[in-house]
Amino acid sequence: MKRLKLTCFTISLILLTLVSQAQKTLHREPDVNKPKLFTNLPERIAIQVSELEKLITNNTATGKDVAVDMKGKGSATFAGKVVATASKYGDTIRSIVIRSTSFQGATFSLSAITQPDGKVTYTGRIMSFKHGDVYELEQSGEEYFLVRKNFYDLINE
To answer: How far is residue 47 from each of residues 41, 76, 80, 124, 145, measured CA to CA in Å?
Structure first.
């Protein structure tokens, strides 16, 4: 009988230790004091579909210098080097990643998705893990806009 009580006590102690260890999480608190990278640009920037098409369809090689004109008030050019390209599912999804030379630490990732009806939609964002703001590509009707958002609205750490 003593052995049974000792065994039950030992198992209970082990389970209690495991449960208390499982409750500890490695959660990092957001750094809300990250510096902003795009303070000199407007909240919403129009970007021409032709600019997006040019990036995706020119078979841009890794290491090549490229530039994207962003139109609107306070317009700017996103210039950089292509660091990666990819094409999946018979060119149904084509992607490019550009490391910026005009906004230090930022990358522009852009994907073109060809729908079954042949229509192409674009998705992408300009972001830096060192800064507190990002631009996300959003479609409004037939137009595309880069819309500024907070880093932690999109990314969970």
So the answer is: 13, 11, 17, 12, 6
Tell me, yes or no, whether 5 lies in a domain.
Answer: no
pLDDT digits (tens, 9 = 90+) for 37-95: 888 888 888 888 888 888 887 657 788 888 887 765 556 778 899 998 888 887 789 99
pLDDT, tens digit (0-9, with 9 covering 90-100), for 13-24: 777 776 665 555
- Residue 136's contacts (CB-CB under 8 Å, 6 or more residues apart) are 124, 125, 146, 147, 149, 154
The answer to whether residue 27 is domain-embedded is no
Residue 63 falls within a domain, yes or no?
Answer: yes
In a domain, 15, yes or no: no
